Amino acid sequence: MEQAILISAFLALCVLFAFGTQGLWLISYYRKSRRTVAILPSNDFELPPVTVQLPIFNELYVIDRLIDTVCALDYPKNKIQFQVLDDSTDETIALTASLVEQKQREGFDIVHIRRSNRSGFKAGALREGLKSATGEFIAIFDADFVPRSDFLRLTIPYFFTSERIGMVQTRWEHLNSEYSVLTRAQAIALDGHFAIEQQMRNSAGFFINFNGTAGVWRKSCIEDAGNWQDDTLTEDLDLSYRAQLRGWKFKYLNNVTTPAELPSEINALKSQQFRWTKGAIQCAKKTLPSVWKAKIPLKLKLQSTIHLSSNIVFPFILLTALFNVPLVLIKNNGGNHDQYFTIMAVFVLSSISSFLFYLYSQKDIHADWQRRIFLFPVFMAGSMGFAVNNSKAVFEGFFGRKRKSEFTRTPKYKITDKKDDWKGKKYTATKLEWTIIVETLLTLYFVFGVIMSVYYLEIAAIPFQLMFLGGFGSVAYMSIKHALLSRRVAA
Question: Count of CB atoms within 10 A of residue 152's CB?
Fold first, then answer.
């Protein structure tokens, strides 16, 4: 049994180490080649026709903000079409129709597109809208985004640098990052992805992904790549790879930002993370065979594999957590395994790699990065706490189900500062998922783990035990608290 635990723990840590040290490569490339992408003037050519697509589903609290914001884009009225792709099933329908009619009276080319069913979910709505899109370029904004007025004038010029530029993606900013510890932790995670990962992958010539919103596509690129498809939960990642495998180039603009609202309620965040994780695994299954058959450099194939499959770390985080306690027992009551535990110390490098990755991302975009990076231990603990939720998503994505997964959208409540509140509003989750039971049991497990580590004076193990305890405990506690609050208010 001891040998099985030691070997399994070692293999789990090897997987985490392999993916974790990718951060060191990104940081190394960042330090050598980081440069600001020049802003191109938009007055050197005739502005092309653009269609702005707004895929929505039950967005009662933010639809007015969304429509008002996009209609304020600094672009000629006769060159821009707006499509509100509305799959709603509640009073959002009537409100949206009223808002669209008002904008039509103001002279905007805006249409309210309704479908008889939600077939294909967001991908299906985008595909339906594309049939009547008049623009040469397609800008897409989810309901929680608030694009700046100069968005199109800052992005469209890049398409004229090459006919093979198929998509331009902007960096997400956060409207409510200071709302709570939960939103601050999310901001750290997203800043790492956008400020370092997207920027460096794009600079190095590797494949990147459209992030589902706050970007612009060349319409012919979408059509050439096979259009939006709904056989995964991440239609954006799927289309991105199909397009780049067809030879289209993407442009990431780190210095052009689009603000958005972060989920302020943990069950909404868990639902979002579940969808992103499961969808990425589905895309990996679907796309990696094509990647390895493609006539592209080996290093591009390897990086694409890492990019698409990185979410498999979550089950290994869970395994590492479970093995953490028995390893302390084996070390203090088992045979002579000193050499094993000496080698295991090397895996701390992956934690250092993660810290440096997020440190540089905060330094890149925030003047007060010192204050923000102090939240890193909380962020790491929270990431560990999501291992149960996201491991479930990995297994569902990998092993699949015969029926298609439903696209569960993330509710938005127009939360921008501390005086705003999501409690008492529609769309909040009231159901307690079975994963909360597992998270609660793991919390109790690590209470025992911390006590045992203190008893054996395993000082090096205590910080990790505390992070697992804090991660699973806080996720379980907030999940129950937010669900019960939603029930109480609804009643």
Answer: 25
**Among 86, 144, 191, 236, the one annotated catalytic:** 236
236 classed as catalytic: yes
Domain boundaries, the chain: 1-33+162-491
Sequence-ordered list of residues with C-beta below 8 angstroms from that of 381, at least 6 positions apart, any chain: 466, 467, 468, 470, 471, 474
In one-letter notation, the amino acid at residue 423 is K
- Residue 289: CB atoms within 10 Å: 10
Structure tokens at 245: 């495998």
pTM score, whole prediction? 0.93
Question: Distance (Å, rounded) from C-alpha 294 to C-alpha 301?
Answer: 9
CA distance 329 to 336: 12
Strands (E), 4-56: 50-56
The catalytically annotated residue of 87, 142, 144, 230 is 87
Interacting residues of 192 by C-beta distance below 8 A, sequence separation 6+? 357, 358, 361
Is 87 one of the catalytic residues?
A: yes
Helix, coil or strand: residue 335: coil
Using one digit for the tens of pLDDT, what is the confidence trace for 224-246?
999 999 999 999 999 999 999 99
The answer to whether 195 and 120 have CB atoms below 8 angstroms apart is no
- Classify residue 440 as exposed, middle or buried by CB count within 10 Å of its CB (0-12, 13-18, 19+): middle
At 326, which amino acid appears?
P
